[in-house]
Design goal:
Elements (H helix, E strand, L loop, with lengths): L4 E7 L16 E2 L2 E2 H9 L8 E4 L3 H8 L4 E4 L6 H6 L2 H4 L5 E6 L7 H13 L4 E7 L8 E4 L5 E5 L6 H4 L3 E10 H8 L15 H8 L4 E6 L11 H21 L3 E2 L5 E3 L4 E2 L4 E2 L3 E4 L3 E2 L4 E2 L4 E3 L2 E2 L4 E2 L3 E3 L1 E3 L4 E2 L4 E2 L3 E3 L4 E13 L4 E13 L4 E2 L4 E3 L9 E3 L4 E2 L4 E3 L2 E3 L4 E2 L4 E2 L8 E2 L21
Parallel strand pairs: 1-4, 1-6, 4-5, 7-11, 12-15, 13-16, 14-17, 15-18, 16-19, 17-20, 18-21, 19-22, 20-23, 21-24, 22-25, 23-26, 24-27, 25-27, 26-27, 27-28, 28-29, 28-31, 29-32, 30-33, 31-34, 32-35, 33-36, 35-37
Antiparallel strand pairs: 2-3, 6-10, 7-10, 8-9
Helix pairs in contact: 7-8
The protein binds uridine-diphosphate-N-acetylglucosamine and calcium ion.
Length: 459
């Protein structure tokens, strides 16, 4: 009881069924790589760092996981049993139990795993396997039981007889082993099977035949055991995970108007009474406060949003929005935008690397880039901050209480001081001093009696 718990995560395989150049365990589910889900789920179980077996894409997997795990390398992917053997040097002398999981089963909850480990520790089993009942068990190893229900062995899909394929109880790929017996049994695993691989599940049959007790613990919720081998399963995993996240958000006081069509990543935080319509995607490390309304078609990533804002059908990336700001419809807020309290950004407005101070409004068809804009500024329709000469970006500074007339072009670098005006249609290339109006457009001339000189269509 309560022996030391070691954790081993298998993540060296090809993942060839994903048809991807990205290592399988780095594919994300609800914004987190599959391997992160697994490593996060085991964290509360033990103070020992998990050991991850890496191989295909070893460098990128190790880099991604960083110091959340130790690593051993499996240079040839000869099967799950062979993968575990690569950790022999690390683990074989440890007394206690070893929890083994795959890096491609992201759905397990921490509590489920903790309870499973406890069940094993209460038993006299040399190994306990976590099983589940699948409506469609295709692709999974099947649990073969004797007439008295004791577990005999696990048979892989490709090696299973027609009768065995009908078994609906599957191997979830999660096991707790007595650590010493694990490596004793692994030494006896052969690869004379349909895939020519050394199967970890074969250790159950080996341990049983050498007189040890083996057991199974059956999961209530099959979806927790989902193994992601291809994009179809990845899509199922995402659907289930997004609905789990949405459920938790709704319980915590967030209103999701069409929760089945709302995609909110695992690391997003949303405050009470914020209303999110259907068809909204909120990604990455976004933090959203209370009492906001976010309407359908909005896509928000890695942003910080305060309270009482209305975001209407807009795209927002790496942006900070304070409180009572209104945005959209169809606005695009690009990285390093900061909008202070009460700012209004209207339709077809793009902002990038710019700070807009409080009460400033840019209502229509505007581009603001590389700029600092003061408070209470009115940016007229069609204003363009001309910030790029094809090679370099230049900065614009606009003071407080400035009225920028419609269709102004502000050619940076330029400074427009407090309490100034730009005349509509101006191309501003020089600084405007306080209280001045900048006007830069040719004067209108009216040519009298011009009508007759125009060609006219026959009526
Ligand atoms: C495996 C189990 C199957 C179980 C299923 C649960 C075996 C032989 N089969 O099948 O009984 O129902 O998981 O999801 O164990 N890996 C390595 N090195 C290798 C081969 C695999 O590290 O040489 C890793 C993979 O990266 C993966 C995990 O082991 O994370 C499982 O391998 P995979 O090929 O996905 O096994 P399944 O066919 O899913
Ligand atoms: Ca798998």
């Amino acid at each position: 009881m309560n022996e030391e718990v070691n954790v081993l995560v298998l993540a060296a395989g090809h993942g060839s069924r994903m048809k991807s150049s990205v290592p399988k365990v780095l594919h994300s589910v609800a914004g987190r790589a599959m391997i992160d889900w697994v490593i996060d789920a085991v964290k509360p179980l033990t103070d020992n760092k998990p050991v991850t077996v890496i191989g295909v894409g070893a460098e990128s997997v190790a880099k991604h996981v960083g110091d959340h795990s130790e690593f051993v390398l499996q240079t040839k992917q000869l099967g799950t049993g062979h993968a575990v053997q690569q950790a022999q040097e690390r683990l074989a002398d440890k007394v206690g139990v070893t929890l083994i999981m795959s890096g491609d089963t992201p759905m397990f909850r921490s509590d489920t795993l903790a309870e499973f480990v406890k069940e094993h520790q209460k038993s006299n089993n040399a190994v306990t396997v976590l099983t589940a009942m699948a409506d469609n068990p295709t692709g999974y190893g099947r649990i073969v039981r004797a007439d008295d229900d004791t577990v005999l062995k696990i048979v892989e899909q490709k090696d299973a007889s027609v009768t065995e394929r009908r078994i609906q109880e599957i191997n979830t790929g999660v096991y707790v082993f007595d650590n010493q017996l694990l490596f004793e049994a692994l030494a006896q695993v052969k690869n004379n099977n349909a895939q020519g691989e050394y199967y970890l599940p074969d250790t159950l049959d080996i341990l049983r035949k050498s007189g040890h007790q083996i057991g199974a613990h059956t999961l209530q919720d099959f979806t927790e055991s989902l193994g992601v081998n291809d994009r179809v399963a990845l899509s199922v995993a995402n659907r289930v995970m997004y609905s789990r996240i949405n459920h938790e958000l709704m319980v915590s006081g967030v209103e999701l108007m069409d929760s089945q069509n709302t995609y909110i990543d695992a690391d997003v935080v949303i405050g009470q009474d914020t209303v999110v319509e259907g068809g909204v995607t909120i990604l990455g490390h976004t933090v959203i406060g209370r009492d906001n309304l976010i309407t359908s078609g909005s896509r928000i990533s890695n942003s910080e949003i305060g309270d009482g804002n209305v975001i209407t059908t807009s795209h927002i990336e790496n942006t900070i929005i304070e409180n009572n700001v209104t945005i959209g419809p169809y606005a695009h807020l690009r990285p390093d935008t900061i909008l202070k309290d009460n700012v209004h950004i209207g339709n077809f407005v793009e902002v990038k690397q710019a700070m807009l101070a409080k009460n400033t409004k840019a209502g229509h068809l505007t581009y603001i880039g590389n700029a600092e804009v003061g408070s209470d500024v009115n940016v007229g329709a069609g204003t363009i901050f001309v910030n790029y000469d094809g090679v370099n970006k230049y900065h614009t500074k606009v003071g407080d209480n400035v009225f920028i007339g419609s269709n102004t072009k502000i050619v940076a670098p330029v400074t427009i001081e407090n309490e100034t005006i730009t005349a509509a249609g101006s191309t501003i290339t020089k600084d405007i001093p306080m209280h001045a109006m900048g006007i830069a457009r040719s004067r209108q001339v009216n040519k009298a009696d011009f009508w007759e000189r125009m060609p006219h269509k026959e009526k």
